[in-house]
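Predict the 3D structure for this chain.
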Amino acid sequence: MKLKQLLPMLLIVLVLTLMAACNSDNESKEQHEKNSEETVKTETTSVAEKEENTEETGDSHATLRNGAMLNPTIIEESGGTVEVVYTNTKPGYVNDMNGFVVMVNSYQIVKITNMKQDVENRFKGASDGYVVTADISIENGQNEDVYYNHIMRLQMEDSNDYIPSNNYEFVPDDKRISWKEEISKFEPGFNQDIFLTFLMSDEEFQSLHTVEPKFIIGAMASNHDDFSDSFGSETVFDFILSDEHAKQVALAPKFYHDKLTTENIATKEMMYEDLEINETKQLNTFGFTIEGVQYTTITPNESSKERFSKFGDEELVAMTLKIKMDNQSDQMVWNDTSAFLIPNENEARILNHGIVENSDISQMQPGERAERYMVFLFEKKYFDIYETFQLEVGPFMGEDGYIFNEEIMTFELPSGR
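Done. Predicted structure below.
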């Protein structure tokens, strides 16, 4: 075939090739724009794929640190815009109640804006709010059934001001407990991860920044369905709101867990502490140990001022003793024995302030150990005067009255000066 005859055919092939290339470029551009739109939509409205990728890596906390959602159900149910505020992947919150262990593996704070109208009633009618999701493990390591209500709370200004946990709102079905027989009954070997949520209005969340918020894991576990002979005690932890808050808490003094601290009754400032006294005295086979002491100035919170009205406007000092007891006797011993703080060789006798004390159990059966934070309150002007302090404890009470021959223990304490 001659060259003149070939030229038209070559031109047709060239034009078709160019058209195909242009169509391919347009399709690629359109596909890229589509993918970009889908990416933006996924990042702002859905985290399902991120959660699936997390499961494939086997590291559920890796993507949490990158800001992924711990609880996508919040997006689905609220219908609003959800923003991750803070994620704590290692809170260290554990309550071990004689082998029945409750642990907070992680928690996440999110803010919801423009939620659906039928969801607003969960937030007191507001269209904006906050949800804390706590990822919790519950394990029954005992050889018998344990009855437990798995209730927790976020405490704000005091023990009457708190956000209760919720096991239904924004909790997916696979993160609720599936009871085999009775509600609140945990069989031996039970081990499950669940979610609990805490719902707050914007005002409630902002108020957390004005106090020292606490995360409290409830107690009152029992081997009986009527909750008789319950065991365990509440555990109280600082509830961290941000990375900056975590740094502040890490640098703050570690105050003893009397109720002044755990119930946010007062703000403390450390004056003096000795955490290594470790002096033990015995009454027969009952051991009483003072592990340490802290002296703090305290400022009662607004809701608690009435409790301290007898001191007027005087600046107050709290002496808190950390006590350990070991009951190897054959008698039950009550863990609320009165004590007196005696300054300057009987210049005064200051009774312990039991209403702000904490203890893990109320009575010690034979063979049991217990812990107690014993508190004495007095005006700061006397702290500057007193040079010596003596502690007088007892007599101790048993089931039928005084025991250990009504003996009294005495200890010499550091004055903090």
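The CA atoms of residues 165 and 198 lie 5 Å apart.
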